């Protein structure tokens, strides 16, 4: 007796249970500390993370894509490909600009790679003189919270200046720190001189540009020290506006007559040459993107924006409108509200389930473990660099039903001892100690099962880092609460409670408890004994069910994708014209697309239900995009996919276009992107082009494949000019001729300066009417060293060819990217299988030097699934090791882990029941199941082992274990599923991309419960025999 009393007073569990103050202080620390952290922690819509990418942007005005590739991209690639930590180098050459994107190896020092790239690019000395300074930056995900559209029937220049004024007014709000103006070309001052004037006065465009540059400066001239102090002297002849250039003197003669710039040139404000046109509801438009600082919530910034907009709208000129086209503050509130609603419903379901099957005071203290674990976890989240966002809140919902398992097991065991008449405080210590070891290892297996989610690669790992971080933190706090806080509270329960609440709760709990007891004794126990009489048959039946169910998705009959297909907030049509298509044709196609959209939506809206909020149009060179924003999904008369289907049918075939694609997922979540993306990479451009044409033809024959598009373009006509013998005889050289032609067509840059918030370039060039036709190039007047002028056609030969409008490269070779959609999406695996097994091998035989790879969504999916498989296998090995320690056996951990594959069976069945396709989120749920589902089997086997050690037979031991542990196993299952149920059955589009993980966890746990109670005992018996 003395030994028992001594043992009951030793150890941390006993000390905390007997110490009335310490457990309450620990609980108060978790609750109050978590509440304080909830006020301080950053809140955002989706996690903001750093991208492992370095971007090099460089401009070479007027250069063709081929020139950009040869003069800019190749030198950069040669310098950066050998940098340690660089995984991929992707380059894009456009007309006048190039971009090189360097993707880093996971885990590398981002700052070190950036510095190495910066040094490598800046030591290149072979760039052409006209090349602008390279812009090198670490890519970052911008956190915009709202977009405004400013539109009206006014000139683009007026709209630009008005947007700058609105931007300045918005920035006066303390909560708004950053705004970008989008949709306008760069401002320029154009000084246009006719060739006749140049010839008349013996001038060249470069000479005029040089004179302007010398006469439009602001420069310090030093200082003068006087008795009154120092006086600074500055020469200020800066010219900001077009009319300020008129009096610049180009030359003067001996008689004093001045030749001013206004005498020979037309001077006007304008924009850089750009085939760009942005409209909103059919009118010219400019957009403003509003960003938040890292410590701000979207709602705070958006609220400040709306407050300012009320004042701004009152001051707008007639005919100008301003509309909020994107509001992350509202989206944030909606999705947070949705998740909080689901969490609240889940919490109520858990409390109801516990109150039905447990004594109500026990149920109360068990339920208190949930807010304690959640708030305690908030204290730890900053250590993982996790914020409050949609993903982390979903993680709390995942943990909702799981974290209470520890408290249920410990509390139910403690209460069982109390019912035997043991003093409450002793019962609390004994009950907690009995389950302390299995609980500790159950928590460890739970944590290990979620570790593979910490190792997800690239964007997926950064996006979903919050899920394992939050769940692991909750597990840790829930374990501390179950062993060190809950026993102390249960030890101080009053023996009898005769109040009104007690009578009401007892009237519910006692009949439920009696029914459960009768079910265990009269239904479950006899069924278990029958299973134990034929354990081999039970195992065979279980294995057959598992094989049949799992073979269904393996066979390809079940759709699989990166994310589930989500209905977007927008429907989008995008057309690619021929590279040299005139701008007027692009405008006609835009009008046609908008007309066909109205033909589709007007009849629907005529029935009284709105559908389209606004329509935005964007033309950029040969690309046309129409984006229609739809009303929220909850009030939409038809879904976005139906709108796209009707729109596609109404548009039909458009003659002369390169491609027509649609998107019904924009704004719906991270599921956007082409259904299929295939990349062709090789050094032989002709072979790549031929292969792409054959592959496009093969894809067009496959059922369900639509919206085919290729990144290759025929390009624009290009004239290569070569100085001939006549030109050389006049003393001309290639550099001089090239400079004069460039000045005439593109313009000679006089200066670049900051004007207000815009950078403005002053260009000297020929007027448009002297450079609008091909014949104008041939008749350009070139000044000779002797001062005379000759037509360009007389001193140079012209070689005509096609220049690609864009050149894409990866790892040193040109690439062609082919994209397509597959309808329905569940057919994507079947289409990929045909490509991988039939079409690709045939093409590789003909073109062995061309690499054919899946990219985009398929590559990301493959990389993520491979990571989950590898780290999932490692986690299983670690779980096995953790189980082998308490069991002191090599075989029994295999027994406990035998339940894991049945979790995958339950997950697949759940998706089939709900009519959902599998996704990477589903696989993440299945991997996480591995630790959760072993908890019940661990508790069951541990109890059976103790009974065998006490002398019971294997059959009697496992039978008693099943009967004794039935209640906690069923309770943990019901509470886990109850906590997840609101998300499992959530129909809102706003949560659809994360529900597959809840489906996998919920149905996996539900199915494995039956396996644990019936199949596992049979396996245990066979192992015992």
From TrEMBL:
<feature type="transmembrane region" description="Helical">
    <location>
        <begin position="21"/>
        <end position="41"/>
    </location>
</feature>
<protein>
    <submittedName>
        <fullName>Multidrug transporter AcrB</fullName>
    </submittedName>
</protein>
<dbReference type="InterPro" id="IPR001036">
    <property type="entry name" value="Acrflvin-R"/>
</dbReference>
<dbReference type="InterPro" id="IPR027463">
    <property type="entry name" value="AcrB_DN_DC_subdom"/>
</dbReference>
<feature type="transmembrane region" description="Helical">
    <location>
        <begin position="435"/>
        <end position="457"/>
    </location>
</feature>
<feature type="transmembrane region" description="Helical">
    <location>
        <begin position="894"/>
        <end position="914"/>
    </location>
</feature>
<dbReference type="GO" id="GO:0042910">
    <property type="term" value="F:xenobiotic transmembrane transporter activity"/>
</dbReference>
<keyword id="KW-0472">Membrane</keyword>
<keyword id="KW-0812">Transmembrane</keyword>
<feature type="transmembrane region" description="Helical">
    <location>
        <begin position="463"/>
        <end position="486"/>
    </location>
</feature>
<feature type="transmembrane region" description="Helical">
    <location>
        <begin position="966"/>
        <end position="985"/>
    </location>
</feature>
<keyword id="KW-1133">Transmembrane helix</keyword>
<feature type="transmembrane region" description="Helical">
    <location>
        <begin position="338"/>
        <end position="357"/>
    </location>
</feature>
<feature type="transmembrane region" description="Helical">
    <location>
        <begin position="920"/>
        <end position="945"/>
    </location>
</feature>
<feature type="transmembrane region" description="Helical">
    <location>
        <begin position="997"/>
        <end position="1023"/>
    </location>
</feature>
<dbReference type="GO" id="GO:0005886">
    <property type="term" value="C:plasma membrane"/>
</dbReference>
<dbReference type="Pfam" id="PF00873">
    <property type="entry name" value="ACR_tran"/>
</dbReference>
<feature type="transmembrane region" description="Helical">
    <location>
        <begin position="364"/>
        <end position="384"/>
    </location>
</feature>
<feature type="transmembrane region" description="Helical">
    <location>
        <begin position="868"/>
        <end position="887"/>
    </location>
</feature>
<feature type="transmembrane region" description="Helical">
    <location>
        <begin position="534"/>
        <end position="554"/>
    </location>
</feature>
<feature type="transmembrane region" description="Helical">
    <location>
        <begin position="390"/>
        <end position="415"/>
    </location>
</feature>
